Amino acid sequence: MEDVARFYGFEPNRSGFILCPFHHEDTPSLKLYSEPGRGWHCFGCGEGGSVIDFVMKLFGLSFSAAVVRINHDFRLSLASERPTAAKRSKYLKERAELERRKKEYAELYEKQTARYRELFQIKRDEAPQSPDEPISERWAVACRELDKLEVWFETHPTPARYDPRRG
What we know:
Layout: H1 2-7, E1 17-18, E2 30-32, E3 40-42, E4 48-49, H2 51-59, H3 63-73, H4 85-125, H5 137-155
Antiparallel strand pairs: 1-2, 2-3, 3-4
Helix pairs in contact: 2-3, 4-5
């Protein structure tokens, strides 16, 4: 809501209030709420509503015209018409494929994490206790593989940050 108000020339104070454009006043009485769905409310004239209501009232627009204005002003790229069945089907297939790839990546990441824990345990538990003690093959392998896994983790995002469209 504050972004919309700023875009249309209103600068909220620290408390989120602006001078109400819908009645004459000397002190800010219109509260802009930052919580989703709260919108705005003027304690002077009693007006209030959503972002769309604000734009409707501010410019004297219908609901659909206000939506078009917001879409244009904020470059939201909202579709103005319903997609065809073929486009919708293609979109759903693409989305399902992205979700499949995300799940596959999350499983790989979990396997790598489990392998890292396993190797770390070996490295910690089987480390030579003195310079004279022989190095076990398992400990040497764990050290080499841990180095490789650390590089892998540095070059691969967590599953929450993974975007399959980027590869």
